[in-house]
Amino acid sequence: MDKLTSMKVFAYVVEHGSFRNAAHHFDISPTMVGKHMSFLEQSLGTQLIHRTTRKQSLTEAGRLYYQECHRIIEDITNAENLIQTLINRPTGTVKVNCPVTYGKKVIAPIVADFLAEFPELNVELMLDNSLIDPYRSEADVIIRIGELVDSSLVARKLGEYDMTYCASPSYLKLHAPIQSLDDLEHHHCLGFQYHQGESQQVVNMPSNTFGNSNTRLTSNNGDVLKFAALKGSGVLLQPKILVEQEIQSGALVEILHSHIPKPKPIHLLYRSKQLSLKNRTFVDFVLSHVSQ
């Protein structure tokens, strides 16, 4: 059995929490993952992982061995990256995780241009509004909207995310004027449902705004809410990039101009300053093509 492969399998088990995840990643059976673990433990003469039917945890030897495995694997990756840079031919798949609306409106067109320019590279673009763990995710590049809380990640700013309130002309004609956020308490609102179960759009807004008492429709998809707004169902607060065409055509009308939430920063994130050539190529391409 190849020791380097076993080390990679062991490191993946530690980082992703289960034999099943490692089996899926390496396209082997969970039984084979167990054989890799047994091979390492036998060759080292000590147990690396405590395993029960419900959970697993590292022994002290396992913790130390993982640190060295991680360093060795990273060194090998860096060496391979140097050779790739030397021959200047990026290959492989770049895995990207991005919020849904920004991904559809901004990143997807950039990815299409990227694929045309780099025929030997592939992109796996996953659109997801959940806050994934960057250290357990398989994503090479993560795009996030909002203030960052993890300073250990490398962050490159892509721009600002502007939000806007709007409603259809028919809705505004049939209902009372909206001049302040407090007025929304007496209107039909279309609330975005975040992964944490909150329908409020912005944490510093009044508690009654887009709350359960006046929300006619709640969805975790902005297009669903926009469709309802176009049909006159209520007031919408969504990213400007999602509704700008409808605003320009007059199908939706911006309101509450003096109460628009502060724009949120957009960042491109990755774990290590030592990017592989494929990831560096993608990051540089996005940075050069996104409009700040």
Structure description:
This is LysR family transcriptional regulator. InterPro entries: LysR-type_TF_proteobact-type (IPR058163), LysR_HTH_N (IPR000847), LysR_subst-bd (IPR005119), WH-like_DNA-bd_sf (IPR036388), WH_DNA-bd_sf (IPR036390). Belongs to the LysR transcriptional regulatory family. Residues 1-59 form the HTH lysR-type domain. Keywords: DNA-binding, Transcription, Transcription regulation. By secondary structure, this protein is of the alpha/beta class. The chain folds into three domains: 3-86, Winged helix-like DNA-binding domain superfamily/Winged helix DNA-binding domain (Arc Repressor Mutant, subunit A), CATH 1.10.10.10; 90-160 and 265-289, D-Maltodextrin-Binding Protein, domain 2 (3-Layer(aba) Sandwich); 163-261, D-Maltodextrin-Binding Protein, domain 2 (3-Layer(aba) Sandwich), CATH 3.40.190.290. 41% of the residues lie in helices and 21% in strands. It has nine helices and twelve strands. The strands form three sheets. A five-stranded mixed beta sheet has the order 4-3-5-12-6, with helices on one face. Helix 1 crosses helix 4 (60-87). It is elongated, with a radius of gyration of 24 Å. The N and C termini lie far apart (51 Å).
- Label the overall shape: elongated
Find the CATH topology of the largest domain: D-Maltodextrin-Binding Protein, domain 2
The largest pleated sheet is described as: 5 strands, mixed
Order of strands, widest sheet:
4-3-5-12-6
Question: What integer is the average pLDDT?
Answer: 87
Q: What is the total domain count?
A: 3
The rounded Rg comes to 24 Å
How many separate helices? 9
